[in-house]
């Protein structure tokens, strides 16, 4: 049996400004550092067998304290990185062409931002990484959009509905997914840890 705890990295300055932060390597702000500390405290209690992170600095900085608290070595995997948002990267939705935004809001899986990564491909790479983890209890630190896409893929929710069915994953929160013979089961979602 494998239990995977999916955590979103701590807050960044771009998050506060409402900027799309996909592949841009943005660090944590002071609140994000506090949230990383809360995840480390959680990991000291939960004692995951392994901690795996996206290689982007905001995820690594969030995961490193948790790995140390759990007494394990942090491992990174590029398949856990955030979706590339193409022309939206580093911008607010209000700064984009209204027609592009309208198409994206209608079906974000079929109409990703131009120049960005296909959401289905992103979900596939992320879940392929998860499939290689375990057995045991594993903490995975990653990003808002790719976590929601992966959860949709694991739970049989159409990717087109990821923004509606899973509106957001909060910074520093933990979602628990169990994996057994019958597939994935959502045990908890978006649980805040404080910070």
Write a concise synopsis of the structure shown.
The chain has helices at 13-17, 30-46, 57-70, 98-106, 119-131, 144-155, 162-165, and strands at 2-8, 50-53, 74-76, 136-142, 174-180, 183-191. By secondary structure, the protein is an alpha/beta fold.
Which characteristics define this entry?
195 residues, 19% strand, single chain, 6-stranded mixed β-sheet, Putative phosphoglycerate mutase GpmB, phosphatase activity, 6 strands, His_PPase_superfam, 7 helices, alpha/beta, Rossmann fold, 38% helix
Coarse structural class: alpha/beta
State the fourth-level CATH superfamily: Phosphoglycerate mutase-like
CATH topology: Rossmann fold
How are the strands of the largest sheet arranged?
3-2-4-1-5-6
Radius of gyration: 16 Å
Question: How far is the first residue's CA from the last residue's CA?
Answer: 30 Å
The level-1 CATH class: Alpha Beta
Number of helices: 7
Instruction: Tell me the domain tally.
Output: 1
CATH architecture: 3-Layer(aba) Sandwich
Element pattern in H and E: EHHEHEHHEHHEE
Question: Which regions contain 5 or more consecutive residues with pLDDT less than 50?
Answer: none
- Nearest-integer average pLDDT: 96
**How many β-strand stretches?**
6
């Amino acid at each position: 049996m494998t239990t995977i705890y999916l955590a979103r990295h701590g807050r960044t300055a771009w998050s506060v400004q409402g900027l799309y932060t996909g592949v841009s390597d943005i660090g944590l702000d002071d609140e994000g550092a506090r949230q990383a500390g809360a995840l480390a405290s959680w990991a000291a209690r939960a004692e995951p067998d392994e901690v795996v992170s996206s290689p982007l600095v905001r995820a690594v900085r969030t995961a490193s304290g948790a790995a140390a608290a759990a007494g394990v070595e942090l491992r990174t995997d590029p398949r856990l990185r955030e979706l590339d948002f193409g022309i939206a990267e580093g911008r607010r939705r209000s700064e984009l062409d209204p027609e592009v935004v309208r198409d994206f809001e209608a079906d974000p899986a079929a109409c990703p931002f131009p120049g960005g990564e296909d959401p289905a491909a992103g979900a596939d790479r992320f879940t392929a990484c998860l499939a290689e983890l375990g057995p045991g209890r594993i903490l995975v630190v990653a990003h808002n959009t790719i976590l929601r896409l992966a959860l949709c893929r694991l739970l049989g929710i159409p990717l087109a509905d990821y923004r509606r069915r899973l509106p957001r994953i909060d910074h520093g929160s933990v979602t628990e997914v169990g994996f057994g013979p019958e597939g994935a089961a959502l045990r908890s979602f978006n649980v805040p840890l404080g910070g």
